Amino acid sequence: MSDLSDKSEHTEFSNDDVSRSENGLSTALATPQNEAVVNTDTPDAVKTEAPEPTEVAPGPPPDGGMQAWLQVLGAFFLAMNSWGIVNSFGVYQTYYVTGILSNETPSNISWIGSIQAFLLLLVGIATGPIYDAGHFQTLIRLGSFLTVFGLMMTSISTEYYQVMLAQAICVGLGSGCLFVPSFAILPQYFSTRKALATGVAASGSSLGGIIYPIVFYKLEPQIGFAWATRVLGFIALAGFVVSLSVMRVRVLPKQKRALLEPAAFKEIPYTFFTAGLFFSFIGLYTPIFYVQSYAIQEGITNQNLGFYLLPILNAGSVFGRILPNFIADKSGPLNMLIPCALAAGILCFGWIGIQDVPGLVVFALLYGFFSGAFVSLPPTAIVSLSPSLGVVGTRMGMCFGLTSFGILIGTPVSGALLTTTGSWEGTQVFAGATVLLALICLLIARGAKNGLKIAVKA
Q1: Whether pLDDT at 93 is above 80
Q2: How far apart are the C-alpha atoms of 340 and 370, rounded to whole Å?
Q3: CB atoms < 10 A from the CB of 40, how many?
Q4: What is the tens place of the pLDDT at every residue in 16-41?
Q5: Helices 286-297 and 392-421, packing angle to 10 deg
Q6: Cα(155)–Cα(232) distance, rounded to whole angstroms?
Q7: Is the confidence at residue 8, as pLDDT, over 80?
Q8: Within 13 A of 268's CA, how many CA atoms are on the CB side?
Q9: Cα atoms in the 13 Å half-sphere on the side-chain side of 137
Q10: Which of 168, 251, 258, 431 has a 20 to 30 Å separation from 421 between CA atoms?
């Protein structure tokens, strides 16, 4: 983003990263923004045109202050109304099975939620470079409109294809416009507290995952599916108004970025990190989508208590998106993601043996905590795996775009296993195995970046 930001003593990049960046950009970084460049190595020194005098160098990230934390507030509401809506699909999954889509299989219904989450991540391939090109406000406005419009159209849907178009595609596209910009803007305002700021912003998705299911569950019997869904749309609209009012890009990029950066995949840490996220999202959302149905169908809880398992899970993820990020500012994001992946994988296998209410409540809280890190920590990890802030948007877009295919196929495969076998064990083992496979990829990425020393920040 900003040359001077890259020079800042607060930068989070490692010495190796900075050295690579300086090799190619030493002249530019050594030159103040408003001075002409003079080549004194040759007799015929040539002066370049100075930038517009109205462009003032922004200086290093403030790492706090009113304006910086207002960006976190705005990003909080964007996360609440993008990932938060995705995290709420479990309540719709449960409703559709016995409601307006009762003639569809659980696997078919889960495609709605998985396509919604798929588009949230896939659209990042385009929104990353668009953000880098300086169109932050355009993305936020478009994403806000599509999300609210999609929810309103969902409220009048009665057929499977209508729900697919409104809730899966329209809301998914809107969420995709919001996701990358909401997190990519924070490194402009924070340096040493970057991970903490990202975690606080990401906790908005957990709050959305608590509020939206409860509001829908309480209102649907009283005012019907249509108006209950419209209320969610109005809540989202209020949050978007706050974000649009307070969020401002601090550093405008000097040039447009490429849509893709294929050279990034020559770097082993970035490649295996992306693979790790891909495998993690295949299995990660299976408990989020199915824990309510599991509790009710297995007769462990009644429908009323079974419903609250999803808000309980999302309540656990509030802490899972703040506390690991707070520690990550000291330990590094990869060093926090790896134990979280291990714990989430073990919990998926432990889910097989849970047959009582206290066990399910504890499972939901713990799984929410450890799975929550997979939303809040990856943006910070990608920053640490990038040679400069100028390519963060593009690299986030590529990583989350590829990861989107994992979340696309994960829950439908889980639903198909449930339908085919008639048993929950296949679904639970599938979720646990894919998350542990993600753990292996993250370990390789960490080892390639920082070696095998445990005490090294990574």
Answers
A1: yes
A2: 5
A3: 6
A4: 443 443 343 333 333 333 343 444 44
A5: 20
A6: 10
A7: no
A8: 10
A9: 9
A10: 168
CA 290 from centroid of its chain's CA atoms: 20
Which pTM was predicted? 0.74
Is a pLDDT exceeding 50 seen at residue 52? no
The answer to whether the beta carbons of residues 86 and 64 sit under 8 Å apart is no
Where do we find the tokens 């009582």? 356
Residue 254's pLDDT is 66
Q: How far apart are CA 159 and CA 51, in angstroms?
A: 57
Residue 44 φ then ψ, to 5° = -95, 85
